[in-house]
Amino acid sequence: MVKPLKDIVIIGAGNVATHIANTLKNNAKIIQVYSRHLNNAHQLAQQISSECQYTDNVNDLCVADLYLISIKDDAISEFLKTIPEQLRDSYWAHTSGSVPRDVFNGFNNKNGVIYPLQTFSKEVKVNVEEVAIFVEGNNTDVENQLIRYATLISKSVYKADSQLRQQLHVAAVFANNFSNYMYIIANDILKRNNLPFSVLSPLIKETTRKATSIPPLEAQTGPAVRGDLNVMNKHLSLLNTEESNIYDIVSQSILKRFKK
Amino acid sequence: MVKPLKDIVIIGAGNVATHIANTLKNNAKIIQVYSRHLNNAHQLAQQISSECQYTDNVNDLCVADLYLISIKDDAISEFLKTIPEQLRDSYWAHTSGSVPRDVFNGFNNKNGVIYPLQTFSKEVKVNVEEVAIFVEGNNTDVENQLIRYATLISKSVYKADSQLRQQLHVAAVFANNFSNYMYIIANDILKRNNLPFSVLSPLIKETTRKATSIPPLEAQTGPAVRGDLNVMNKHLSLLNTEESNIYDIVSQSILKRFKK
């Protein structure tokens, strides 16, 4: 028999917790928010509903069907140790891309991971329903139940064990964190020349449009893929040490990759 | 007196030439396409109009008001030497981000650069009217005339001398070429794990949406900006040498940048 989906407690009030809670509230009952910063817990609870409780004390946690943990990766293990025994019969899941499921070993018997593959900043609204979510449970029954919870958040739910989730996470670091850092460097160069970042907007939009419509290998352009060493050397002379180190290692890798 | 804008000859039939010509044809008369590959010249001419001529022989070039050169950077200088004297009274401009205007020195007295800051692939349609175009002329009169030509291509036309254009070009390499290469690496990681690149689409779209709505410095997320060395080391162990070299140098730079 499939258990009903009932009350949920959100642990954490950061970027991920905020986005998930604000989507989940439409399809489930979030009864409480926990954060070690009471103010943050209060703020998020207010966004959820006027009845949603909040606390910064694990001993005041409500009894719930699912506890969803979105706190710092390296805080999860220590946090679990503080949870009262009587709450451990429920489902517990974290949302981290890099923390293995076995962080729950010895904690309880209904646990897993609900990992949304997305970048969340509090001030930018995200369409969470379209984010790919990867689920793992400590056994098939638990996994199926967590998948049901995940489908309350997004339409795109997949299974992924801890190993696969780590691979997804490192892929996401390249696709999001590192490409955004390339924008930061581009912005630095423009700033030095008194140009606004907005002159690059059409280029950045086109980069994405291409990458999501044709394979990225076919979308690659620029001096390195053409093997244009003259231009590459000229560019290196315009950059500071930090920038030119990155320019060099990425260009060499592109050169090697596209060598005819 | 401002000269009328009349007949234009497009030199080149590659990605940039194709996109510019297909926009320019709506606002100006392109009378001929030159390419050293006659087939390519023919193909592009057909896209432009049924009257548009094509050739692979510089001695058959029509007399025109503007010759717009979109060929490989390192071919421009040699190409100019082959141009018959009687055609040099017209305006000549190239579209390269990295070739200085002085490539025309000694060639004629009405020359410059019309540089579109964009990535062009033949198979992907681009809204060229919104691309930022940077113009330089060998004197103010010429520059003003080239700006008039550029406004036939795009609504966003700016002046930029050769030095500034190079800075723009290297910024564009980071913003487009390198971020796309990050997508290529992400794709490699997914492929190794039998996952389609499409699972990253919402993440990539969000990366762009953020970068074009809040400053990229505020959009940065991920293990390096959090200073999470555990996750970074775990990621390094999942990558091949090439990938981990890039992961390491970019992460170290992010770490340094965001050090609290």
Give structural notes.
The structure is a homodimer of 260-residue chains. Chain A has 260 residues and is of the alpha/beta class. The first copy, chain A, is 45% helix and 15% strand. Chain A is built from ten helices and eight strands. Chain A has helices at 15-24, 38-48, 76-81, 140-150, 162-192, 201-211, 216-219, 223-226, 229-238, 241-258; strands at 7-11, 29-34, 53-55, 66-69, 91-94, 111-116, 132-137, 156-159. Chain A has an eight-stranded mixed beta sheet with strand order 3-2-1-4-5-6-7-8. In chain A, helix 3 (76-81) links the parallel strand 4 and strand 5 (91-94). The longest helix of chain A has 31 residues, at 162-192. Chain A is elongated and about 70 Å long. Chain A starts with 6 loop residues before the first strand and ends with a helix. Chains A and B meet through helix 5, helix 6, helix 7, helix 8 and helix 9 of A and helix 5, helix 6, helix 7, helix 8 and helix 9 of B.
